[in-house]
Design goal:
Largest sheet: 11 strands, mixed
Structural class: alpha/beta
Strand content: 15-25%
Low-confidence stretches: none
CATH superfamily of the largest domain: ANL, N-terminal domain
Helix content: 25-40%
Shape: globular
Number of strands: 28
Radius of gyration: 24 Å
CATH class of the largest domain: Alpha Beta
């Protein structure tokens, strides 16, 4: 099928209402947006939702997770999960947990993790999942200790003890119970806790539970400094579900059970709240994907996609790039992925136009129809506050505000900063009054630090377009603004498949320079093509990047979009140094500060060794 024919193919239908947006003008160029569509009624709490689903569908499978080494699926139905969380809740009460005595979870997604989290929430004890990387990929445990001291947990859960022993040894565990699923030395066995008989105290705790109860503490990713504890009230989490419910249409088949496959960590808002809570709210089945969008691990996700064949698949853009590459080489995988797929959902970064086109070509080849690519936008502090819930023929959108949320666009410099108010937004960071005064404006709107603009000012229902990070953008010495948030993904897309990420440099300089990380797969292929000679292989990669950037510059426009010089980075971004988060977000400013010695030669009067002129 030709590209033109594919572009004319119809889209698969979406189960959402059309956007209906009200726009009002404020003082000083401020613009307010809200949805005229009301949200659905909000539930009382997430544990109440679990019990409701258990009563309706006691035998329906809620969670599935493979046994080690990609073994068979183990599973827990809604009814059993409800009973187990009651037993675990009693055990946590017996160990002193409650509203001021949280549960901290150091390990990644698992059935036990989910049940411990809901058990803690039953008794009002905030569940606090911490990025696993802080325990297993750090050498100094600085971020872990910071999180531990911020919330002061009464108990800590880990899946298995051995990977976490060094991290646990770095903490003062006086008065803290350590619980593990494997029950090994130094911990209490999770299985023993599931056998505790719940008393009336568990039921009493549930009667106290309401929208203002703190269900979780989620820490910001640390992409702009040390992680900050953002309380997640039950009302915030159920408001997110109600907002989405407001735009959903009745299902074509009420008896169909939603099948979800997801790897995204529950220590972050997308995986832990938006995805996890939504599946539970609709009585769906959540398959925990042990794969990751990383070399050597994504094959596991591919195998799971073939098996589960979900109706929707959400991830960061990097995963869709890897999936497209795999489907282009495997027709059987392509047909399996698209057999029940209704939409792809991306977030955390902008998807490139090239990748969008590749995914559409694959969808049309498999089904004769194009696949909607949706995105939800938000933050740890806000849940998901906007969504593209209609068919679009482009990417890079922020969407429109979800029901119940008010969006505010406020002029900051030459851009419009996104600010938000509504029941999904936190009231403030835990014990950080000075920071809270900085992140909320005079009207009580939370300032996200991102910029957006209307796709079509005359038609606000067409949504907002992401316009970069207010805090990342900079000016060249000419006074010309550089939009890093839009330029960086465009550079990566232009250099595909040779580059996996880049840092855009040039503040107060006469031109833009870039630090680029070459794709490991591309380097490996280039070295093999050059008889195993590393120097020649890297030279081929460098020449390829230069050629692709030259082509990019030819159509880039002015100086704010042209990359004049680049150099290849040979060491990966550092988690401990704050250069990258475990979600894969590269902190542009932190990386430049840490690698000042590599940035400076980009702008030397004479071309420095290792720097390539485009």
């Amino acid at each position: 099928m030709s590209a033109d024919a594919g572009a004319q193919a119809p889209f698969k239908p979406l189960p959402y209402k059309a956007p209906d947006i009200e726009v009002t003008q404020g003082k000083g160029g401020v613009v307010y947006l809200r949805s005229r569509t009301p949200p659905a009624p909000a539930a009382r709490s997430m544990p109440h939702i679990l019990d409701e689903r258990a009563a309706m569908h006691p035998d329906r499978i809620w969670l599935k997770q493979r046994k080690p080494n990609h073994g068979p699926w183990r599973e827990v139905p809604y009814g059993k999960a409800s009973r187990m969380t009651r037993a675990l809740a009693q055990a946590l009460l017996d160990r002193g947990l409650g509203p001021d005595a949280p549960l901290m979870i150091l390990s990644g997604n698992s059935i036990e993790h989910a049940l411990m989290s809901l058990a803690a929430q039953r008794i009002g004890a905030p569940a606090t999942p911490i990025s696993q990387a802080y325990s297993t990929m750090s050498s100094d445990f600085v971020k872990l200790k910071h999180c531990f001291n911020a919330v002061k947990p009464k108990a800590i859960f880990v899946q298995t003890m051995d990977p976490f022993r060094k991290a646990l040894a770095a903490l003062d565990l006086t008065g803290v119970t350590v619980i593990s699923a494997d029950g090994s030395e130094g911990s209490e066995a999770y299985l023993d806790l599931t056998k505790v008989a719940p008393t009336s105290l568990v039921g009493t705790a549930m009667t106290w539970l309401g929208p203002d109860s703190i269900g979780k503490y989620l820490f910001t990713s640390g992409s702009t400094g040390m992680p900050k504890p953002a309380p997640q009230s039950q009302g915030q989490m159920t408001a997110q579900i109600a907002a989405r419910g407001g735009i959903e249409l009745p299902p074509d088949d009420p008896d169909e059970i939603a099948q979800t496959l997801d790897w995204m960590p529950w220590s972050h808002i997308s995986g832990g709240n938006v995805n996890f809570n939504n599946v539970m709210s609709i009585g769906g089945t959540f398959h925990i994907d042990e794969g990751r969008p990383m070399p050597g691990l994504f094959q596991t996700t591919i195998a799971n996609l073939k098996d589960v064949r979900p109706q929707a698949f959400g991830s960061a853009p990097i995963a869709f790039g890897m999936l497209a590459e795999a489907m282009e080489a495997d027709v059987e995988l392509r047909d399996a992925v698209f057999s029940r797929m209704r939409a792809f959902i991306y977030g955390g970064a902008t998807l490139s136009d090239d990748l969008y086109d590749r995914l559409q070509k694959l969808s049309v080849a498999a089904t004769g129809m194009r696949i909607p690519l949706l995105t939800m936008y938000g933050a740890t502090e806000t849940q998901g506050v906007t969504m593209t819930h209609w068919v679009l023929e482009r990417v890079g959108m922020v969407g429109v505000p979800l029901p119940g949320t008010t969006l505010k666009l406020a002029p900051v410099g030459n851009k419009m900063e996104v600010r938000v108010k509504g029941p999904m937004v936190m009231r403030g960071y835990l014990n950080m009054p000075e920071k809270n005064a900085q992140v909320f404006d005079e009207e009580g709107f939370y300032c996200l630090g991102d910029a957006a603009r209307f796709e079509d000012p005359a038609h606000p229902e067409k949504g907002l377009v992401f316009d970069g990070r207010v805090t990342e953008d900079f000016k060249l010495d000419s006074g010309t603004w550089v939009s890093v948030g839009t330029l960086r993904p465009d550079i990566v897309a232009a250099c595909a498949p040779l580059v996996f990420d880049a840092v855009v440099c040039g503040q107060d300089k006469p031109f833009i320079g870039a630090l680029v990380w070459p794709s490991p797969a591309a380097v490996k292929a280039a070295v093999e093509a050059n008889g195993g000679d590393m120097a020649r292989g890297v030279g081929a990669i460098t020449a390829g990047i230069r050629e692709k950037l030259a082509a990019f510059n030819a159509n880039a426009g002015g100086s704010s979009r042209k990359v004049a010089r680049f150099r290849i980075l040979t060491t990966p971004p550092s988690l401990d140094a704050g250069e990258i988060t475990d979600k894969g977000y590269v902190n542009q400013r932190e990386t430049q500060a840490n690698r000042a010695a590599e940035v400076a030669p980009l702008f030397a009067a004479d071309l420095a060794p290792g720097v390539v002129q485009v």
